[in-house]
Amino acid sequence: MKVLIVGSGGREHALAWKISQSPKVDKIYCAPGNAGIGQIAELVPIGAMEFDKLAAFAKENAVDLTVVGMDDPLVGGIVDVFEAQGLRIFGPRKNAAILEGSKAFSKDLMKKYNIPTAGYETFDSPEAALDYLENAQYPIVLKADGLALGKGVLICMTKEEAKAGVKTIMLDKQFGSAGNRLVVEEFMTGREVSVLSFCDGKTITTMTSAQDHKRAKDGDQGLNTGGMGTFSPSPFYTEEVDAFCRDYIYQPTVDAMAAEGRTFVGIIFFGLMLTDRGPKVLEYNARFGDPEAQVVLPRMKNDIVEVFEACIDGRLDEIDLQFEDNAAVCVVLASGGYPEHYEKGYEITGLDWFDGRDGYYVFHAGTKLADGKIVTNGGRVLGVTATGADLKQARANAYEATTHVDFRDKYCRSDIGKAIDEV
């Protein structure tokens, strides 16, 4: 098979690495990719949002399967474009990807179908939102309705912070058109857990649990980012929690989408909050998480291409999804200044340390090849992942591995997975 991957981040590198292990696959393309992906796939200089060019490339090169890593092309309708031309592609159609594309839609869906989530209100005008905030309970959460690179969520401790947040999202348009509508949500407390799942429209099969660290700095301080690190599995995601989520969240979500005429085929990422009143949905995503993929995929035993094909063909119920009885931790190495201003173009050294080391992986996110050298080309530069017999061992291995890679202004959090020390 020939496989085309759409995207350029750490998640897409993890996907390329996993797909390359399939005996079914002998050629991988990635558009546009990065320096790390270029070591296992042929890079194609087409942007992720250039659907017609991507479809033409897939046809001309007899691509058997396209896998979309990113949210923007899915929400934009890349699957519809490919399917209209008879091309096999893994991911939700545009009318189903709205599950991630509009927070207002997903909240309304959960409300209609009694799927547990935080209380909320939706606003189309800043004036109405500001009026509502006068008598709201604090802390409170503001969410830009659309896609915002994982950063369009503000947790506001006071009325003044919330009013400033409305200005940031709806008036200053810090997240662009994503802030045309605003979801104001009840603040929930508890443990966060991420659960990724495969869906074929009717059957849903969950992967192992993970936990992301969104804030830029230690102790969950600083600005929201795309994710500074992850660990898997979450010790807080017990069998009891899993049973509840299967009955009241996972299958009901797939059934609700089907009932709405928005059959979901692809990945549903469930962002959960384990509250003292039970698990509730924080958010849905319509693709693999980044950096969740970097800890979940190294633990997956299955041939991922077989799973993708089973989803597309509506026979996911035939797949026995299995994961290693181990743990994984991913530490993101970022450019100093991320997620605000940062420099690019610094040479990265030490990457060859990972060559041939079992249980250690370096997934490229913001990198490119320049004059024969791999240099920084983004805010999140690399994801250093290590496995171990348990979470503490995996965490120690991951942090030890980060010391072997270097670039100017390298920055990482020192407390990824620290919550596991409390268990």
UniProtKB/TrEMBL annotation:
InterPro entries: ATP-grasp, ATP_grasp_subdomain_1, PreATP-grasp_dom_sf, PRibGlycinamid_synth_ATP-grasp, PRibGlycinamide_synth, PRibGlycinamide_synth_C-dom, PRibGlycinamide_synth_C_sf, PRibGlycinamide_synth_CS. It catalyses: 5-phospho-beta-D-ribosylamine + glycine + ATP = N(1)-(5-phospho-beta-D-ribosyl)glycinamide + ADP + phosphate + H(+). Pathway: Purine metabolism; IMP biosynthesis via de novo pathway; N(1)-(5-phospho-D-ribosyl)glycinamide from 5-phospho-alpha-D-ribose 1-diphosphate: step 2/2. Its cofactor is Mn(2+); Mg(2+). It is an enzyme of class 6 (ligase). Transmembrane segments: none annotated. One of its GO terms (molecular function) is metal ion binding. Keywords: ATP-binding, Ligase, Manganese, Metal-binding, Nucleotide-binding, Purine biosynthesis. Residues 107-313 form the ATP-grasp domain. It holds the Pfam family GARS_N. SMART domains: GARS_A, GARS_C. GO terms for biological process: 'de novo' IMP biosynthetic process; purine nucleobase biosynthetic process. It comes from the Bacteria. Its EC number is 6.3.4.13. Belongs to the GARS family. This is Phosphoribosylamine--glycine ligase. It comes from Hominifimenecus microfluidus. The gene is purD.
